[in-house]
Write a structure and sequence with these properties.
Layout: E1 34-36, E2 39-41, E3 45-47, H1 56-65, E4 69-76, H2 77-81, H3 85-90, E5 101-105, H4 109-123, E6 127-132, H5 137-140, H6 152-166, E7 173-178, E8 180-182, E9 185-186, H7 188-198, E10 202-206, H8 220-229, E11 234-237, H9 243-253, E12 257-260, H10 270-278, H11 289-307, H12 309-323, H13 331-337, H14 343-350
Parallel strand pairs: 3-4, 3-12, 4-5, 5-6, 6-7, 7-10, 10-11, 11-12
Antiparallel strand pairs: 1-2, 8-9
Helix pairs in contact: 1-10, 1-11, 4-6, 6-7, 7-8, 9-10, 11-12, 11-14
Length: 404
């Protein structure tokens, strides 16, 4: 059976509506298409940008599974404006991408505006998302990433400049952020109002603080609170490991759609399940190892088409552990898969796997990718003394590291 021929089974039923343990709200109907300005996303699901993962090949692979909005890897405004080769190389779109979506990061309103104009005018971008959720220390210690929303006026200036630059092209601008720096310095409600006032088409909230990084549980109550506080669409992000999690988030928070990141690592068919769930249909059965191997081969092939066979196979190595997580594939085969540099080698090793091995049920609903542990957020001296920005931002705050 091919990867596109899995049969529907009664494996999914929508969660029962009727409250949640944390007292968050519930809704009785699933959202329709996600509307971002003039842009309509049939299935209200967004692929979160992930550095080194969400390139054109991975986006196509996910798009082949189900409808949604697939966002390119995060790039910096300075990289775009100054014509940095690495940044521009990330602005590659697959021929099948009907909607070109880019996540942009910047700390200077002028540079952000220039970058947005370049993206719209020269690269045909249809949607720009601004990232203010990166918790990486080398970014926050300069006041960037998830630390920046603490400076409310600066945040507003950046968002307004981006919206104004995109307006002549009819391109919607959205924002992604976290709850705040830590539990004592929350910014998400202020950010929601600022985004709305600036003319943003939506705001996405990762239900963790910067101090949490990717540890612990995401706070869906915060998503519900933000939804009640603003009139623009709110997208929820955090702890969506299965399609049922997405439905439960929508029902418990009232959010207009979901953003999926780590949950799809080694599982691009999650978007197939999400499309089915949001359409009110049964989620298809889980793939066996033979079907997973077929997706792996397809992924490597797409990477090869983007960057050449050898480089594509090398790039694919990072995905192997995610795809095989929980399967009983032997350590020798796993090790050798981590050394592949050709399709022939990949095919030989995939052929050694037991194609009939069922999907490991113990992996369902469990975290994938990075997690880490909570840690104090590194900030510039005196950063928390005022919500207003004084002086000039350190250029080091605009880093190419993806996050959020």
């Amino acid at each position: 059976m091919s990867v596109h021929e899995w049969q529907a089974v009664d494996a999914y039923s929508p969660p029962v509506v009727g409250g949640c343990d944390n007292g968050c709200m519930t809704v009785s109907t699933l959202p329709g298409p996600l509307r971002l300005g003039n842009l309509e996303v049939a299935t209200p699901v967004v692929l979160a940008p992930m550095a080194g993962v969400t390139n054109a090949s991975f986006r196509r692979l996910c798009n082949e599974q189900g409808a949604g909005l697939y966002v390119c890897e995060m790039i910096t405004s300075r990289g775009v404006v100054e014509g940095d080769k690495t940044s521009l190389a990330m602005l590659r779109f697959d021929e099948t991408e009907k909607v070109r979506s880019v996540q942009l990061y910047g700390i200077d309103p002028t540079y952000v505006a220039k970058a947005v104009k370049i993206l719209c005018a020269d690269h045909g971008v249809d949607h720009v998302d601004l990232n203010f959720g990166c918790p990486v220390p080398k970014v926050t210690r300069k006041g960037g990433g998830a630390a920046l929303p603490w400076k409310a006026t600066l945040l507003g200036d950046i968002l307004t400049s981006a919206v104004n630059a995109a307006a002549p092209y009819g391109v919607p601008v959205t924002m992604k952020t976290r709850k705040g720096i830590d539990d004592d310095h929350l910014t998400f409600l202020d950010s929601g109002h600022i985004a709305q006032d600036a003319g943003c088409a939506a705001i996405a909230l990762h239900g963790r603080t910067a101090a949490q990084h990717y540890s612990g549980r995401a706070d869906w109550n915060a998503i519900a609170e933000l939804k009640q506080a603003v009139d623009i669409p709110v997208l929820g992000n955090g702890d969506i490991w299965e399609a049922a999690d997405a439905i439960r988030m929508v029902e418990e928070t009232g959010c207009d759609g979901v953003v999926v990141g780590r949950g799809c690592l080694g599982r691009p068919w999650l978007f197939r399940d999400l499309a089915a769930a949001f359409a009110g249909n049964d989620v298809l059965e889980l793939p066996n190892l033979g079907e997973v191997a077929a997706v792996m081969r397809r992924h490597a092939q797409l990477l090869g088409g983007l960057m050449g066979e050898e480089r594509g196979c090398i790039e694919f190595r990072k995905h192997i552990a995610w795809y095989l997580k929980g399967f009983a594939a032997g350590s020798v085969v796993r090790h050798q898969l981590g050394l592949i540099s050709s399709y022939a080698a990949l095919d030989d090793l995939l052929a050694r796997l037991d194609p009939n091995e069922p999907y490991p049920l113990a992996e369902l609903g469990t975290p994938r990718g990075r997690q880490g542990s909570p840690k104090r957020v590194n900030l510039p001296d005196g950063w928390l003394d005022s919500r207003e920005m004084t002086g000039v931002m350190d250029e080091g705050a605009e880093d190419g590291t993806s996050g959020g």
